[in-house]
From TrEMBL:
Top-rank taxon: Eukaryota
Entries under InterPro entries matching the protein: Nucleotide-bd_a/b_plait_sf, RBD_domain_sf, RNA-binding_reg, RRM_dom
Biological process terms in GO annotation: cell differentiation; mRNA processing; mRNA stabilization; positive regulation of myotube differentiation; regulation of alternative mRNA splicing, via spliceosome; regulation of translation; RNA splicing
Keywords: Cytoplasm, Differentiation, mRNA processing, mRNA splicing, Nucleus, RNA-binding, Translation regulation
UniProt subcellular location: Cytoplasm; Nucleus
An annotated Gene Ontology molecular function: mRNA 3'-UTR binding
Record's GO cellular component terms: cytosol; nucleus
Name recorded for this polypeptide: RRM domain-containing protein
Start and end residues of each RRM domain: 27-74
Length: 74
């Protein structure tokens, strides 16, 4: 985990894919339980190994673990 720009803990964090049957041009992945120091850039870099990232956003709530979302191109 230390060599990665974003370390997702084995417990507490989770990712859920969301696709619609109408639109197959991208896949949105919601990621919960992100560390407080996670940035849009580090979230993007973490998921780039899976494909082109259209958007990576960390929602800052002021809480310790914030949610985020990424959009992957097919």
């Amino acid at each position: 985990c230390h060599s990665s720009p974003l370390c997702l803990p084995s417990r507490g964090a989770g990712a859920k894919m969301h696709t619609t049957q109408k639109d197959t041009t991208y896949t949105k992945i919601y990621v919960g339980g992100l560390p407080y120091h996670t940035t849009d850039a580090s979230l993007r870099k973490y998921f780039e190994v899976f494909g082109e990232i259209e958007e990576a956003v960390v929602i800052t709530t002021g809480r310790r673990a914030s949610p985020g979302a990424t959009d992957l191109s097919p």
